[in-house]
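[scheduler] slot 2 assigned
[scheduler] job type: sequence-to-structure, two independent chains
[scheduler] chain ordering preserved from manifest
[runner] begin chain α
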Amino acid sequence: MERGPDTRYCRELHGRKCGGRYYSRCRKFTILKGGIIAYSNEIKESLLGVNHETLETHGAVSEETVIEMVKGAMKSMNSDCAVATSGIAGPTGGTPDKPVGTIWIAAGCKDKVITLKLEGDEGRNKNIANATQNALQLLRKLFQNEENEQ
């Protein structure tokens, strides 16, 4: 069986959605060994190594936080790759600075991390579906870049 890099998945927005979808689409080529659902900042800090200062300065829903989540997931789970999302799916929880539908996604493989910010509230289920699809697309983009560099 052909296998690519092993992948860890760390997610705040909706724990099962992306990991399960990733596994069902990619199980022939990669290994999904586990994931961390890090809703609380305490878990982000203790399990993923997100700096307290990052959370205080930028908030949980930020590019800086998802980058640290991805790096922490790769380190703590000894993984080649990881995906992280943090966002406000709704229907409540938004602020003027970060309204419902604001979602940050990061995907990382080895030393490379790419990010994407989603904006716009399409309802909780659609927000989660959009985040899931985009997280998988970012990871796919990284896998394609890895293959092209070999």
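[runner] end chain α
[runner] begin chain β
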Amino acid sequence: MRYGAKVLLEGSCFDDSLAYALHYAPSEGREFISPYDGLDVITGQATVAWEVLEEMKDEPPVIGRSIVANGREQAVAVRIQDEPGQLGYILDFLRRKRATVLDLRRSWKSRSLISGMADIEILIETEDEHHGQEVLQELAKEARAHNFELLLEAKEPEVRS
């Protein structure tokens, strides 16, 4: 406890851990600081992501060959309103459909930061190719119903040896 922090590992998933932390912090007279919702935290995460992207701008992403070979991986891009909760809705939808998010990044190529819209690239893993197509078809329906745009339905990820 060099800096006075106490690390607790509770729950089998993020939702369980979050529920525990939200209960534990007030019971100990402490303040819960979200790893996602604070402006300073978001700014810091964006800064780190920007630095990583700057270092890797000429490097294609490294993708596991076994996932690509069996059709379980899908790259999806969506355009959402840049407002709290919009991305969370899509991520929750993917979780409910049993699609694992492997990577997520905001695309800085096609839109200005001030536009009010955000282009998000999401790399998901599905159970198999058929499940992947089902997830994409249902995501397209959700896009129409919930005011976001599916920019690409599927993309073959690049593999670097």
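[runner] end chain β
[qc] chain β: The radius of gyration is 18 Å.
[scheduler] slot 2 released
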